[in-house]
Specification:
Blueprint: E1 9-15, E2 21-33, E3 37-42, E4 46-49, E5 54-56, E6 61-66, E7 71-78, E8 81-89, E9 93-95, E10 100-112, E11 118-121, H1 123-132, H2 137-156, H3 165-176
Parallel strand pairs: 1-10
Antiparallel strand pairs: 1-2, 2-3, 2-4, 3-6, 4-5, 6-7, 7-8, 8-10, 9-10, 10-11
Keywords: Hydrolase, Magnesium, Metal-binding
Pfam families: DUF402
Domain DUF402: 18-158
Length: 177
């Protein structure tokens, strides 16, 4: 698998299980690109929803994507601390022809606050889409197993939740920006 080069720009494309495009983040800077991990950053980037509606992100964000785990993690730098938004999703694939990172969003999200407390979000949306799009039972098992891994990472301060991770990558982003 090909990976993007640090300093290059990429688009992030989120899809639903049925193949429908869900959301696009237009311009993210690649900070690290390997076959197993891509770390990107953006600040006030345009986001386009599947219905064509667009909006701008409000703060700098460090985005962590892993080819082995069924989640991705966005660390948002706000005045009162780092907030994380974690999407339960398929592992990423990188499409070099269009400089785009792609994944399937599986509805469940975890919001993590600066004090590392967290909330599971969108369980109703997950149950609705699971029935509507006929998520296989294997996907359901994987997602809940990976949710446990994600919660372990949060509680243990692992990966993007480790002290300094987001701040250090943000400093790297500033060298490109």
């Amino acid at each position: 698998m090909v990976s993007p080069n640090a300093g290059s720009k990429m688009m992030i494309q989120s899809y639903k299980h049925n193949g429908q495009l869900h959301r696009i983040w237009k311009n993210s800077v690649v900070l690290k690109g390997t076959e197993s991990v891509i770390i990107g950053a953006n600040d006030r980037t345009k986001v386009i929803e599947s219905d064509g509606h667009s909006w701008m992100t409000r703060e700098p964000a460090i985005c962590y994507f892993d080819a082995k785990h069924w989640f991705n993690i966005i660390g948002m730098l706000r005045d009162d601390g780092i907030y994380y938004y974690c999407n339960l999703s398929s592992p990423f694939v990188y499409d070099e022809e269009v400089d785009s990172l792609k994944y399937i969003d599986y509805d469940l999200d975890v919001k993590v606050f600066p004090d590392m407390t967290f909330n599971l979000l969108d369980e109703d949306e997950y149950e609705e889409n699971k029935a509507l799009m006929k998520y296989p039972e294997e996907i359901h098992r994987i997602l809940y197993q990976q949710l446990e891994v994600l919660i372990h990472w949060i509680r243990q301060g692992k990966g993007p939740f480790s002290p300094g991770f987001v701040d250090d990558w943000y400093e790297m982003y500033l060298t490109y920006h």
